[in-house]
Amino acid sequence: MEGVLFMTKVDIYSGFLGAGKTTLIKKMIAEGYKGQKLVLIGALVHQPTLLVLDEPAAGMNPQETLELTEFIGEIRKNFHMTILLIEHHMDLVMDIADRIYVLDFGKLIAQGTPEEIQSNEHVIDAYLGVVEDAED
């Protein structure tokens, strides 16, 4: 019943979204997307220019996280929007992000591409610990 009601809302917004995006959203609903994916679909109906995702993979198992990563990738590809992602699952972040900003206790310690962040000493020290810490 909830899916049917949501489809009606998609139909209402179809004039704003255009036929291609409306069809894509209806396809996502028909494929049985639920949970976090359905929340994201609901946000897409409003055509945001910025999509803020605060730990969207929280509580998910590895398979669900992988599926969410692919889904967010589809959103980027099909809706061409900026996504601000706050996340602790580094595989998800590295697969989705073009640019990454790393905070440590609220302080910006690094920014760059995923490749730059993976090899950044400040990030490694902050999140993996330094060699001296392991010896103490």
Summarize the structure.
This protein has 136 residues and is of the alpha+beta class. It has helices spanning 2-17, 19-30, 36-44, 62-79, 90-96, 114-118, 121-128, 131-135; strands at residues 50-54, 82-86, 100-104, 107-112.
Structure description:
The chain has 136 residues and is an alpha+beta fold. It has helices at residues 2-17, 19-30, 36-44, 62-79, 90-96, 114-118, 121-128, 131-135; strands at residues 50-54, 82-86, 100-104, 107-112. The strands form two sheets. A two-stranded parallel sheet has the order 1-2. The chain has a two-stranded antiparallel ribbon with strand order 3-4. Strand 3 and strand 4 form a beta hairpin. Helix 4 (62-79) packs parallel to helix 5 (90-96). The longest helix is centred in the middle third of the chain and has 18 residues, at 62-79. The chain is elongated and about 50 Å long. It starts with a helix and ends with a helix.
